[in-house]
Amino acid sequence: MKLNRFTNLLVIGLIVTVAATGCKKKTGFVTPLPANMGGGGVVKDPRPEPAPPLGTDPITKGTGNEIKSGDIKDMDGVKQNAFGKHEGWPEDRAILESSKVYFAFDSASVRPGEASKLTAVVDYLKANADKAVKVEGHCDERGTEAYNLSLGDRRSVSLREELIKLGIDPTRVDTITFGEARPASTGHDEAAWKLNRRGEFIVLSPPK
Amino acid sequence: MKHMANWKFLWIALLAGLAPVAGHGQIRIEYDVVPGGTKPVLVSMSGFTGEAAQVIQFDLYVQGFAVTNAEAAQYELSGSNGENLQGKAMDRVARQALLAKSYSGAGLRRQAHTFVDDFLQSIKRVGIGKSKIAYRSMKGENGEIYVADFDGFNPTPVTKDNALVYSPAWEPGKMALYYTTYKMGNPSIFHHNLSSGERSAFARHGGSSLSPAVSPDGGRVAMILSKDGWTDLYVGSASGGEPKRLTRSREDESGPCWSSDGKWICFAAKVNERRSLCKIPAGGGEIVRIPTSGVLNPTEPEWSPDGKWIVFTSMMGGFEICVVPSGGGVVTQLVPGEDPSWAPNSRTVIFTRRHGSGRSLSLLDVPTKQVKDMSRIPGNSNSQPSWAK
Questions:
Q1: Smallest CA–CA distance from A49 into chain B, residue
Q2: Which of A39, A172, B246, B362 could crosslink B147 through cysteines, CB 3.0-4.6 Å?
Q3: pLDDT tens digit string along A113-123?
Q4: B217 Cβ partners below 8 Å, 6+ apart?
């Protein structure tokens, strides 16, 4: 049945094709396919490259973005770009462990009640002039990953700003975001989430 | 026997030559999109078995078709899959043969994908059967980037970093990715040539370097950097050099993507205390808000390749895959999920769903809301999908 219908179609098709083109098309009747392109190639281990020098980027009022959700004026005097130069410095998470700063949901603002925790960080850095600090920004699991990476980054950067305002040299404060990837508590309720929306201070010591 | 088979091939070849002639001016374009509100196109299948039948059915389903009986179907797909796949397509409504082809080489799966692509091409649509995806698979605390066929087959590891990795982004038309890795300590953006295996640091600065998005022409990369002390949106040349800062806000910007014409960079931001989608000219300028009425907290936008839509995730307690016209407007909520990425056909998206501690990838046909889970991909936490375009 089917074959018959199909054969009829073929005959009509042949007539139309010949009529339309005047001759038989020299079409290869088998479509060769390329071999599978394959996925990833062999991964070569990347050679660590030094971070490129951080060029100056003077803050100019009234250029670029027109989002008016914050005052950038208080940042004008602060050199923001010379950080991240402590690669390979040994880390100590214990020294400033009690200075963890907690954030409100969907916010990177350092709340007044939390800001007092920075005193210990500042005191430590002032007493240990050779050391630096890495500020980690963390989030709870209620955001998407892209959102949380940026929010965690903004949290780390906000804490860095506070340290700079309190007199710490910007070049001594590195930042890093972990988004929601490193929760302090693995629960799925506010009791856990409030512990996860946090900033942590890791002491960096110069390599011996 | 062999002789007969060859004759059959000749007929098929002649018929294949016919399709464009007979089809001129008569093929309807069905992709008249109402996101989430379009009925699937009915198609019947006969003669295919086993893996070939599965592939054809899967490919059709995630591109807005539903398989039904021959009487109800608009399109009739028939054929066989012995050593090689042979397939025919017919428009039953227009009473028109669309396609008849035989395929060889590259394996049965690929032949079946190609047949569906050829069928779609015969009705003036873009097939996705040969397209690739990249995603991140977690192993414990850390993860690796993988590349697979769009249906999750042939997963191949791309990294061996044993580190946090995020947001693979394809270089358009190339077997190459940008992604974020913590391999070096702080998050940095790497470029990875998948053909040669070579990779290089693309953005490696103080602070965090996040969320690369490649312009449609491959020449520029949008990203989120905090090298200057703020979490802001930057754009850099793919060939290197100092990236240009586009935003200067005291809030976080996140998840950039490019408009299909390469003129705009779209991203998520907090404007006047409200989470919004925004766009900014790729060379810098004023930020324009993209209205997303009906939902809150939009993130992770991705502009469709045809320029018409932006798919994104709204965060309202749970996560919801949403779509809005690219100029903004009324949002259509599609299905629960996050992190959507368009297929080259501008209608299918791949996205992530959370379940317990794990995550898995699914495909969604936006017009019909048909969803296929890809639970067959190994690993219990796969996310951060990106569809090659």
A1: B201
A2: A39
A3: 999 999 999 99
A4: B172, B262
Nearest Cα neighbor of B382 from B133, B134, B138 is B138
The answer to whether the CB of B255 falls within 8 A of the CB of B226 is: no
Q: Do A17 and B248 touch (CB under 8 A)?
A: no
Å from A54 to nearest chain B CA?
7
Residues of chain A found within 8 Å of residue B278, distances taken between Cβ atoms: 67
**Closest Cα to residue A153, out of A137, A165, A131?**
A137
* Among B212, B233, B234, B317, residue whose Cα is nearest residue B277: B233
* Region A176-200 average pLDDT: 97
**What top-level class would CATH report for the domain B132-387?**
mainly beta
Give the span between the Cα atoms of B124 and B101, in whole angstroms.
17
**A56 at interface of B, judged by CB pairs closer than 8 A:** no
Lookup result for tokens 């087959």: B153
Q: What is the pTM of this model?
A: 0.82
User: Contacts of residue B315 in chain A, CB cutoff 8 Å?
Assistant: 142-144, 147
Question: Looking at domain B2-122, does it have CATH number 3.30.160?
Answer: yes
CB contact under 8 A, B21 and A147: no
Spell out the CATH class of A80-204. alpha beta
